[in-house]
Every structure is written in structure tokens, then in C-alpha cells.
UniProtKB/TrEMBL annotation:
Gene Ontology BP annotations: cell wall organization
UniProt topology in membrane: Single-pass type II membrane protein
Protein source organism: Brassica campestris
Main EC class the enzyme belongs to: transferase
EC number(s) recorded for this UniProt protein: 2.4.1.-
Name recorded for this polypeptide: Hexosyltransferase
Amino acid sequence: MASRSLSYTQLLGLLSFILLTSTMAVRVGVILHKPSTPTLPVFREAPAFRNGDQCLEADQIHIAMTLDTNYLRGTMAAVFSLLQHSTCPENLSFHFLSLAHFENDLFSSIKSTFPYLNFKIYQFDPNLVRSKISKSIREALDQPLNYARIYLADIVPPSVDRIIYLDSDLVVVDDIEKLWHVDMEGKVVAAPEYCHANFTHYFTKTFWSDPVLVKVLEGKRPCYFNTGVMVVDVDKWRKGLYTQKVEEWMTVQKQKRIYHLGSLPPFLLIFAGDIKAVNHRWNQHGLGGDNFEGRCRTLHPGPISLLHWSGKGKPWLRLDSRKPCIVDHLWAPYDLYRSSKHSLDE
């Protein structure tokens, strides 16, 4: 049966049901797998998801994500949501980027949680970017893995010519195949864009007062887009040497301090006004609030295919603290986490 996205009304109905039943304790028989290192969370095994009859084995959908030990719980929930809402879940091919010293433990954790998942883990060398990173407004934005998406085209196999990059703080409530088949119209990047946002806020006065730097936006209608959900034409990225172009802007940032927001601004300087815009339903972002306090936010009206907790507030942390936002209960059904105490109880 083909997957359907959830309407705004349906999401609110689901949220009401979750809140109504949240006090009911339901014990189920699950198999828990504990990774070899105590530093990683413990997850229960996800059910197996199989292709529908209409699926063709050759139609692979490539998805890239990072594996940060601090965000692993979010990554597991994101993968679970992708599989659950996919018509052809066995066609999803995951490309995970991680730091070398956690690779074996992360592999074991994913394999035990998703035994049937088609995935590969690639080592990301933090030295590629460490000296290029400038301090931003939030420490989490300064971590090397936050910049790994810049090097994605150089890391995945040459046979991968298109890929969907996803952050770890999101869940997908629609069939990802719909986003995969977007017509790129010759563009390098496809993503929801937001032209009502005040573009000037993303850069400093130093940038706007420099006529040479500002010239990069000449002839464009620059619009904000969030780099946590992107379809990337990997072939065009490689041929256009876009990794080097992003690095060049990072070098300028080191010299002149032209922005405050981690890895996002270089993407805006290169691609803003020149991406393939896709429907906003594919990134209901900002659910984590701002980058300073992470206050609760509500859903925007309209159809929703992807919920994204960008910002400081993460749903698993707010749920654990017993101070969740209402929207965090939409993330909770995809949470595969079990604490060590829960594991022993089972």
C-alpha cells in the first residue's frame, strides 16, 4: 500500500491521541541489544520492513546522515521513520559519516537495531575541517561532523550521483521516494526555500559593508534554505568543485568574521537564489526553537512530510527532562531508546 503524508489536522489528531495515552504503561516483549561500549545508548530492535509488490530492486534511494554519539538517539528515530513510511523500504541505502574511533561500536549499534538495513559507515577525518571552523553562536554547530556534509561528494562512491542529506533531529512522515524523484531542473541542490526570511540577519555588518563580498549575491534573489534537508546532485557538485568553494568562504570567515552560524552561511552564499525549490512540507523546521533558549514552537498550518527539530531544543532531551513541548510528542513514537535500567527490567 502506498504511503500517504499526514495533513496538519491528522498530525494534531495523532498528537492528541499520544497525549491522551501517554500515562498508560504498555509492556511488550522486545529484544534489546547493548553495544560494546557503555557510552552509547541502548536501543530495541526495530521490526523488519519489506518492499511492496510494485517495488523494483534497482530503484535505490541514497540517504546520507552523520553518526554523532550525542545525536545517535535522534538518528535511530529518523531511520525508523524513513523505513516505516516508505513504500519500498528495502530500496533505501544509507550512507553514514562518523568519526573513526566510534565506527565499530556504531556499526554494532545500527546492525542490532536494524538487522535488515542496507547501510555503510564512512570515516570522516575531522582534520579536513578542524582548522577551518570558526566559533559560532552555539557549540554544537562547531563540531567537525556538522561540516561533514560539505565533503559528502568526495566520500560516497562515484556510482552515487544523487543523494538526500538529512540531519539527525528529524522524523519523516511521508514516503521519502517523493522527495527523491524531485526534478532538479539542472540545479545542484534542491530544498525548501523561504524568501520571506530576512536574509540580512545571516551575515555581519562586515559582510554587508564590503562591496567585493556583497557582489556574490548580485543578480540573485537570495532566499534562506535549511541545509538539514537537501537533495544533492553529487555529479554536479563534484564537477563544480563546490567543496572547495565552501572552503574558500570558510577561509574568508576566518579572516573577516562575516557570519555567526556554523556551516549554513557558506551554503547560502553559494546557492541562495540558485536552488531547486521544493514544497515546504519537506522541512517543517525550527521545532527546536532558536539557537539560544530552544523555546517551544508550534506547527505551521499545511501538509507536513518532515518534522525537523532544528534549533537548540531536541525532543529526546526535553522528553527526558519531563518538560517536553507539545510537538515533541510527535517524535516520541519513533524513539527506539531504552535505558540500561529498562533493559534489565525487560
